[in-house]
UniProtKB/TrEMBL annotation:
Domain HTH tetR-type: 14-72
Portion annotated as DNA-binding: 35-54
Keyword field: DNA-binding, Transcription, Transcription regulation
Record-given protein name: HTH tetR-type domain-containing protein
InterPro entries attached to this UniProt entry: Homeodomain-like_sf (IPR009057), HTH-type_TetR-like_transc_reg (IPR050109), HTH_TetR (IPR001647), Tet_transcr_reg_TetR-rel_C_sf (IPR036271)
Length: 194
């Protein structure tokens, strides 16, 4: 009898964890300062249940950000990045905008809670995808080579997160944020007019 209840309890716990992480993603994407109480209510669990799975707010934010980046990375892995680097960059940015907006809010929630090394670790795969594309664009003469590659990757990252912040602040709209972010990133990578 005990062997039958243990797997059921584990499955229940996994479903509870998944609900809590989904609720944390939703709440923190809307408000990076969302309370544990609001997240627990969104998940349909009590605070004690939430704290039973995530001992601290930092653990919960880490799980939400990791989940969002993992789902996003799987989506972006399917984008065709072959052909003209500028066009490939446009496809990557267009496909990633929703993910950037969510992860920017989650990143804001993570600031001060998670160590910088953990944040870099979580962003490693998306950063590598962008780095590989920029490197190829540099080799093919589409992107500037006068600035260090890691700096360009970081600049793109900061521009996209800045666009998400401007959207939340009401300075950009859903209708224009993707275009504004893409044009800005492409202008940075092309470099100054000669």
């Amino acid at each position: 009898m005990a062997s039958q209840t243990r797997p059921r309890r584990r499955a229940d716990a996994e479903r509870s964890i998944a609900r809590i992480v989904a609720a944390a993603r939703a709440c923190l994407s809307e408000n990076p300062d969302a309370t544990i109480e609001a997240i627990a209510a969104e998940a349909g669990v009590g605070r004690m249940t939430l704290y039973g799975h995530f001992k601290t707010r930092a653990e919960l934010v880490d799980a939400a950000l990791a989940d969002a980046l993992e789902v996003g990375d799987a989506k972006l892995a399917g984008i065709d990045l072959s052909g003209d680097p500028t066009e490939a960059l446009g496809r990557l940015l267009a496909s990633s905008w929703d993910l950037v907006a969510e992860s920017a809010a989650l990143l804001e929630a993570a600031q001060g809670l998670l160590p910088a090394g953990r944040l870099r670790e979580l962003h490693a795969s998306p950063a590598k995808r962008m780095e590989d594309l920029i490197r190829r664009g540099q080799r093919e003469g589409a992107f500037r080579t006068d600035l260090p590659l890691p700096w360009l990757v970081s600049a793109v990252h900061y521009l996209l997160h800045g666009a998400a912040e401007q959207l939340r602040a009401g300075n950009l709209t859903e209708a224009n944020v993707g275009r504004v972010a893409t044009e800005t990133v492409q202008s940075v990578l092309r470099g100054p007019a000669t």
